[in-house]
Amino acid sequence: MSSIVLLGSTGSIGVNTLRIAQKHNITIEALVAGDNIELLNQQIALHKPKFVAIRESAKTHLVNHPRVYSGNEGIETIIEQSCSDTVVNALVGYAGMLPTIKAIKMNKKVALANKESLVVAGEFIDTSRITPIDSEHFGLWYLLNDKKSKQLIITASGGAFRDWSIEAMHKATFKEALNHPNWSMGSKITIDSATMTNKLFELLEARWLFGTTQLDGVIERRSIVHALVEFVDGSTTAHFAGVDMRLPIAYALLDSVEDEILPSVDLLKMGAISFEAISPQKYPIWQIKSDILTNPHLGVVINAANEEAIELFKQGACSFFEMSDRVLECYQKFHNAKPTSIEDIIAIDREVRRYING
Questions:
Q1: DSSP state of 341
Q2: The dihedral sign for the CA sequence 45, 51, 52, 58
Q3: What is the pTM of this model?
Q4: What pLDDT, in 10s, does the model give residues 136-146?
Q5: What is the pLDDT of residues 90-102, one digit of tens each?
Q6: Which of 73, 150, 196, 288 is the most exposed place for a label (fewest CB within 10 A)?
């Protein structure tokens, strides 16, 4: 791979992608970022991209580059004009869906960290053009090796409130929900980890990537085991790796990986590992796990409701558990929605957001 387009360059996935690219002499043809202009300018100085885009047109003058685009149109223009075969999509939330579709339409490979693309529109996305960057899906791919499986299992840390009582969680604040025990991530994915919505999304993503509904999740607090596969012969294998996203990123960017990306897990220092069930009492969104895997087209409903509920929680307009309540209410309200096109997806997304804020 000679060059890539990187969407979401200033987030944790983007920063780690640039580290891998620099180590393996991959050219950065384009950088796309949100509001962290200071870091973006540092990346521009180091990687010298041909194109740059940011979220807001009003801030383009702050970017130290002669070719700065903005907004969704700017991202699509960059994807159209780029020569790179690969687009790394590390954008956050619904905003990442249309760039994924655009890149595939332009016959590019997508190294996908934007799980919402598949959650919202998996039915209309050619997954043969996608390599997932999520550690869980990378782990499943690594383990499967074309063998026949019985069930695919991904792990969850349990999020910020895994040791809180349900009574205390009712009073939890937005700031407290950002205290993830294992990771340093953006605010949306950290809130989604606390509610277990992130894991539900990953099950949906796995549904489209691996073509099965035989999926489940368990809590593994150390985040050392990322995925497990139960095979039809009765054996189960697990994928162990450090708490670091560079490994799935390296496999997504390189044709083959033959040198050390991470230090090996020291089994003697690792200590005990245990697994726990995901409780629907503590994580109410888990109630619909089986139903959403049977009706994956309803991912657009969950995603739209979830993004709006997070904003309400951030503003203090709803409590922690009310976020899940509102998502579950929307899931029932729009359960008969059946998109048949991307245009339908966009319309349903808009209607759900209007309803939850009504």
A1: S
A2: positive
A3: 0.92
A4: 999 999 999 88
A5: 998 899 999 999 9
A6: 73
